[in-house]
Amino acid sequence: MPNDTIIFASIFGGCALGALLATVLKGKAMRVAWAGFGCLASIAMLALGVGGVFAESARHIPLWTVPHVGPVSFSVDHLSGFFLIVTALVAIPAMIFAAATTSDEKARKTPLAPLSLVLLASVALVILAADVFLFIVAWEVMSILIYLLACGGPKERPGYLMLAVGETGTLAVLVALLLLGSHAGSLSFQAIQASSAGLSATLVEVVFALTFLGFGVKAGLIPLNFWLPEAYTAIPSPIMPFVAGATLNLGLYGIMRSNMYFLPTTFAGPGVCMLLVGAVTALIGILYATIADDFKTLLAHSSIENAGIITTAFGAGMIFLSAGHKAAAAMALIAALYHLLNHSIFKTLLFMGAGTLERSANTRSLDEMGGLLKRMPWTGLFVLVGALSISAMPPFNGFVSEWLTIESLLRSVELSSMGLKMVFVAAGAAIMLTAGLAVTCFVRAFAMSFLGISRSEKAANASETNRAALSTMAAVAVICFVLGVVPTFAIPALDRVVAPVAGASGSTALVPTFFHPDTDKLPKKFTAEFHDLGAQIGKDAIPARGMVVMHRGGKKNPVVFAMSTPYMFVMLVVLLAALVLIVRLATKNRKVSRRPRWDGGVRRFLPEMTYTATGFAQPVRVLFEAIFRPKVSDRRESIAQHFRMSIQRKREEIHLIDRLILYPLAKATKAVAAVFAKMHNGRINAYAVYALLALIIFLAIAAAL
User: Fold this and answer.
1) By three-state DSSP, how is residue 532 classified?
2) Distance between CA atoms of 244 and 548, rounded to whole angstroms?
3) What pLDDT does residue 157 have?
4) Poorest-pLDDT segment among 204-218, 396-410, 465-479, 688-702
5) In terms of CB atoms within 10 Å, which of 101, 178, 514, 702 comes out highest?
């Protein structure tokens, strides 16, 4: 396979050569090598991924044989091809952005260029690994590199916390994969997948618990996601778009690979667990994002939210598979992968915006920003696109995937089990509440940073970033728009990824062929109505199955839902043009008179008088006080014990997971340690008794055996 050899050499050789040159070179030459070789490796990755998605079967590339381990190889199938595409679409603009925004001083202190290029190679290696040995090695390299990036700042705690929790997850994954390898008699993923039908129910449950826990750590799922906000805040802003847009996906890749390829989907238990954990993760993530003041922390909690939405769709797909509803399962999995792609794109854009704001305004606090749209108009425009996308506003990409996710949850009416229906109702309610809070969160984020007046001198002195950074942000913003307007092009491609798992075509059910009455299988009266609405427009000119996304029901209810973002976009343009025309006609013969705005009698409007991000989030804090439960402490100062001089109130946010799990666990551990500490400070007679008791216990065990 000479073509494959060239592509692999371009990916890994490009990353290695780029890392070497970026270490040796300085200044502009270093940036050119960083961006150039990063883009070269990413383009090769994109080509390999497209080939994997559209190939008829998986391609296996043997590498070498490791003593006492066995053969090590690469594999490119539909799933790995899709994740390679997502990684490449993130890496190309992210590498250019990182090279354009890293200062010479920062480059001297932290080797961001070589670390980021080696990280790109390790992400590709995780996705391409076709056996347990290579997968775990690549996973560990990737984890160590992110740890080094997280430790590059003034604090070392985030990196150590991430590494400690991540290693716990890695050990769980390793045990699960070794159990599967032992059953298959090989560490090859191909052999493990081939032997999945013979797994016992107990082994399936154990492997699911271990893999969902282990990969859930990297994906940011509750309850082991407390490391993620701290790590994301500590990682340098230039490289953060790539870390957030590409590495979080590896946890979701592992969940899908291990539980939908390696394990048989014969009962609903794993799907129910995924559904509920995903829904709770999404809701908790967006709640803490809505009250966060630090822009990067806000985006980190939002990443947790979106990982929860994707996991919820995974769970829905597994439940439908276990119940035999293949078309509904395909729809849910398409929604999950579409949202994974969309989240990677708009989160990359938003982290670019956050890094630009931090660099230009010298702050990440929303309370200290304001009025930046006048000083950074292009950055404001691109951040607005990201905010609209992540808020699921049409015609941008987040709308399509979140809409598909919610509609796939509504397909639970096809299930016969009332218990499963109730689980779907609870998860659906949580996801819909999450979607509403996401709008609140990003209206707050954009308005408090870009609108109004500057609330600090830092924001007042901000300036626009360089053209290279703006160009990459513009490119990512365009991708957000394109993925939102042409879902009927994306869904058939995603269907190739999910069809081997679901056993049915999702695009056939979701994208009908232009509603032509003579060729479509739907009732003629129904298709005629869509034909009259113009759903056939563009049939001979547009290379797609159609421009409407819908899902068919039974004979009594032939359509459950339908939407078309291309038509939405056209109507939005028409309405906007009509509005502009009406305004111009209405003001044609009128003179514009400009006067000072009404100030309510205030001579000077001070920044302290404006609405802050903290004040904007206060209603959410009040409504969800039972979840947040902050620690509030008062400090009162008085004169002569009677005359109150000042009252200072301090509010400390304690995360739900810290309060319910980590703090009680730490308290119990300290209590146990205190008991053992007493044993080390007792009398010599007590030590003799301990030794005698231990000897008696061991003798009793030996006698019993």
Assistant:
1) helix
2) 32
3) 78
4) 688-702
5) 101
39-43, 379-383, 522-526: lowest mean pLDDT where? 522-526
Which residues are 638's β-sheet partners? 644
Q: Interior CA angle at 305 toward 177 and 417, to 5°?
A: 70
How many other CB atoms sit within 10 Å of the CB of residue 543? 6
Among 385, 339, 293, 329, which Cα is nearest to 551's?
329
What is the sign, positive or negative, of the torsion defined by CA atoms of 102, 105, 109, 114?
Answer: positive
Residue 487: both structure tokens together = 């879902």
Chain mean position to CA 37:
26
Contacts of 155 (CB under 8 A, 6+ apart): 234
Omega of the bond leading into 223 within 30 degrees of 0 (cis): yes
Length, in residues, of the chain: 705
Domain ranges of the chain: 1-192, 506-567, 611-652, 662-704
CA distance to 447, 577, 628, 675, 679, per residue, from 687 (Å): 67, 88, 47, 14, 8
What 8-state DSSP symbol labels residue 646? E
At 179, list the tokens.
């159990």
Q: How many CA atoms lie within 13 A of 622 on its CB side?
A: 6
- Written as six digits, the tokens of 496 are 């190739």
CA-closest candidate to residue 303, choices 329, 340, 356? 340
For the ranges 153-167, 200-214, 399-413, 560-574, the lowest mean pLDDT is seen at: 153-167
Would you state the pLDDT for residue 655? Answer: 79
Check whether 438 has a pLDDT greater than 90.
Answer: yes
pTM over 0.70: yes
CA distance 87 to 94: 10
- Across 302-330, average pLDDT: 93
Are 285 and 134 within 8 A, CB to CB? no
Q: Which residue has the higher pLDDT, 525 or 682?
A: 525
Distance, in Å, from the CA atom of 615 to the CA atom of 278, rounded to the nearest integer, reads 29
Average pLDDT rounded to a whole number, residues 88-114: 87
pLDDT above 50 for 501: yes
With helix as H, strand as E and coil as C, how does 108-153 read? HHCCHHHHHHHHHHHHHHHHHECEHHHHHHHHHHHHHHHHHHHCCC
CA-nearest of 233, 279, 251, 285 to 390 is 285
Q: How far apart are CA 117 and CA 166, in angstroms?
A: 21
The total of other beta-carbon atoms located within 10 Å of residue 655's CB is 17
- For residue 306, which of 336, 271, 275, 276 has the smallest C-alpha distance? 336
Q: Which DSSP letter does residue 187 get?
A: S
Q: pLDDT tier at 1 (50, 70, 90 boundaries)?
A: very low
Residues with Cβ < 8 Å from 111, sequence gap 6 or more? 22, 23
Residues 6+ away with beta carbon under 8 Å from 287: 437, 620, 624, 627, 628
Query: In the predicted model, is pLDDT for residue 607 greater than 80?
Result: no
Neighbours of 178 (CB within 10 A): 14
Residue 484's alpha-carbon distances to 163, 385, 532, 541, in angstroms, are 36, 11, 25, 20
Distance from C-alpha of 275 to C-alpha of 271, rounded to nearest angstrom: 6
**Position 370 confidence tier, pLDDT thresholds 50, 70, 90:** confident
Distance CA 362, CA 591 (A): 43
pLDDT at 517: 60
Q: How far apart are CA 461 and CA 360, in angstroms?
A: 8
Which phi and psi (to 5°) does residue 451 adopt?
Answer: -100, 175
Strand ranges for 588-652 from DSSP E: 631-639, 643-652
Paired tokens of 453: 């007046």
Return the bridge partners of 562, or none: 550
Over residues 147-163, the mean pLDDT reads: 78
Q: Which amino acid is at 605?
A: F
